[in-house]
């Protein structure tokens, strides 16, 4: 039961924040390329899902899973995208991501007069609170490296 | 508890089989008077709603027919451009049917290839070692399940989110593929599947799975 990593993208595709807790395998490409690939994949998944959907959708794409991990996705109406990779035992992280947005991002970034929206989030308070929140999640358990 | 459709994709990412089991037709026919209060735009050779929502007509819905007569692409059945037609107050009141546009074969081909690539990227971006590609993709209205065989063939199923036993069903479809497509001497590998027995057995397997799914939820 664990959280691997978390990405936050803005509506233009730039990665505002990334942190990892339990990542075993790197993508084999530079971090910048990985962010672009991740954003591109999510953009394509969203357009794929809206075309192939047999019914009109409300929330759209929620998550996907492979044999080893599960990716959870949450997009705010302002175009901010939260992406969290966890292991397979976590079925629904939507509320977690909503909590991260409303209680951490809005509180510590949006309401911070020093933080410029649209640039990488370098608020230490935000990073610490986010880290503490993730570690306090019921499904988080640090694995022995 | 419905299975919407089945797609089979070959090793190269090309669609070789597609079957729509259940296509929900969400359409709305309404009478409009001048001035027309929805904003329409051209998109992919169709006229779609770009802004405005009313009575079951949502953004993204395509214009299907005017006054009961189906439209052809961007023009009415008589060949007049639809947007021009709707700017003329003499044509009102008009009865228009909107709905989700049905996917053309070309669009299905493109979507299958798109999924093939997304499947691979899902495996590349994995934070864990030895991950497969995307096996299940969830949205609020449906789930996409994908089973990749050892030979690289992908069986993709679009189903209701509550449908159970999909893994078993995908293995069953693989079995049907190997029995009625691969063992067919006239079938060439990686080519579109045109085998009647494959179609028949696939349909009955889907029916059984849908009925079994209902029992599971009801009891």
From TrEMBL, chain A:
Q: Which GO terms describe its biological process?
A: endoplasmic reticulum to Golgi vesicle-mediated transport
UniProt KW NADP keyword: no
Q: What Pfam families does the database record attribute to this sequence?
A: Sybindin
UniProt entry keywords in alphabetical sequence: Endoplasmic reticulum, ER-Golgi transport, Golgi apparatus, Transport
Q: Does the keyword Transport apply?
A: yes
Q: From which domain of life does this come?
A: Eukaryota
Quote the subcellular location field of this record: Endoplasmic reticulum; Golgi apparatus, cis-Golgi network
GO CC term, one of those recorded? Golgi apparatus
Q: Which family does it belong to?
A: Belongs to the TRAPP small subunits family. BET5 subfamily.
Spell out the subunit comment. Answer: Part of the multisubunit transport protein particle (TRAPP) complex. The heterodimer TRAPPC6B-TRAPPC3 interacts with TRAPPC1 likely providing a core for TRAPP complex formation.
Looking up PANTHER family in the UniProt record yields:
TRAFFICKING PROTEIN PARTICLE COMPLEX SUBUNIT, TRAFFICKING PROTEIN PARTICLE COMPLEX SUBUNIT 1
Role, per record: May play a role in vesicular transport from endoplasmic reticulum to Golgi.
Would you tell me the protein name for this molecule? Trafficking protein particle complex subunit
- The record lists the organism as Xyrichtys novacula (Pearly razorfish)
Automatic annotation (TrEMBL), chain B:
Q: Which GO terms describe its biological process?
A: endoplasmic reticulum to Golgi vesicle-mediated transport
- Extract the InterPro entries matched here: Longin-like_dom_sf, TRAPPC
Localization: Endoplasmic reticulum; Golgi apparatus, cis-Golgi network; Golgi apparatus
The UniProt entry, under CDD domains, shows:
TRAPPC4_synbindin
**Any one Pfam family match given in the protein's UniProt record, by short name:** Sybindin
- This protein's source sits in the domain of life called Eukaryota
Keywords from UniProt, A to Z, are: Endoplasmic reticulum, ER-Golgi transport, Golgi apparatus, Transport
| Keyword flag Endoplasmic reticulum | yes
Primary location class: endoplasmic reticulum
Record-level GO cellular component terms: endoplasmic reticulum; Golgi apparatus; TRAPP complex
What does the annotation say about its assembly with partners? Part of the multisubunit transport protein particle (TRAPP) complex.
Functional description taken from the UniProt entry: Core component of the TRAPP complexes which has a function of guanine nucleotide exchange factor activity for Rab1 GTPase. Plays a role in vesicular transport from endoplasmic reticulum to Golgi and autophagy. May play a role in dendrite postsynaptic membrane trafficking.
Protein name from the UniProt record: Trafficking protein particle complex subunit
């Amino acid at each position: 039961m664990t959280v691997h990593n978390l990405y936050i993208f803005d509506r233009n595709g730039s990665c505002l924040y990334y942190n990892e807790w339990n990542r075993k395998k790197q993508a084999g490409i530079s971090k910048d390329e990985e962010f672009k690939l991740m954003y591109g994949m999510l953009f394509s998944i969203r357009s794929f899902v809206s075309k192939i959907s047999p019914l009109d959708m409300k929330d759209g794409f929620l998550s996907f899973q492979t044999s080893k991990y599960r990716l959870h996705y949450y997009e705010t109406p302002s175009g901010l995208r939260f992406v969290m990779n966890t292991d397979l035992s976590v079925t629904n992280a939507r509320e977690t991501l909503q909590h991260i947005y409303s209680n951490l991002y809005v509180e510590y970034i949006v309401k911070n007069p020093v933080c410029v929206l649209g640039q990488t989030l370098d608020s230490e308070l935000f990073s610490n609170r986010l880290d503490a929140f993730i570690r306090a999640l019921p499904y988080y358990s640090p694995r022995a490296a | 508890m419905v299975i919407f459709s089945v797609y089979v994709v070959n090793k190269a990412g090309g669609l070789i089989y597609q079957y729509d089991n259940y296509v929900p037709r969400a359409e709305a026919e309404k009478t409009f008077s001048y001035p027309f209060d929805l904003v329409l735009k051209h998109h992919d050779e169709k006229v779609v709603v770009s802004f405005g929502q009313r009575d079951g007509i949502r953004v993204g819905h395509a214009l299907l027919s005017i006054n009961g007569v189906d439209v052809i692409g961007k023009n009415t059945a008589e060949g007049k451009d639809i947007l021009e037609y709707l700017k003329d107050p003499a044509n009102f009141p008009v009865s228009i049917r909107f709905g989700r546009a049905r996917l053309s074969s070309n669009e299905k081909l493109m979507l299958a290839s798109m999924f093939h690539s997304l499947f691979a990227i899902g495996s590349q971006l994995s934070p864990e070692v030895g991950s497969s590609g995307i096996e299940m993709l969830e949205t609020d209205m449906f789930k996409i399940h994908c089973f990749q065989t050892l030979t690289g063939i992908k069986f993709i199923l679009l189903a209701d989110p509550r449908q159970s036993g999909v893994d078993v069903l995908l293995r069953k479809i693989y079995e049907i593929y190997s029995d009625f497509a691969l063992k067919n001497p006239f079938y060439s590998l990686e080519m579109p599947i045109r085998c009647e027995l494959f179609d028949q057995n696939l349909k009955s397997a889907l029916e059984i799975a849908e009925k079994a799914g209902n029992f599971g939820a009801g009891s």
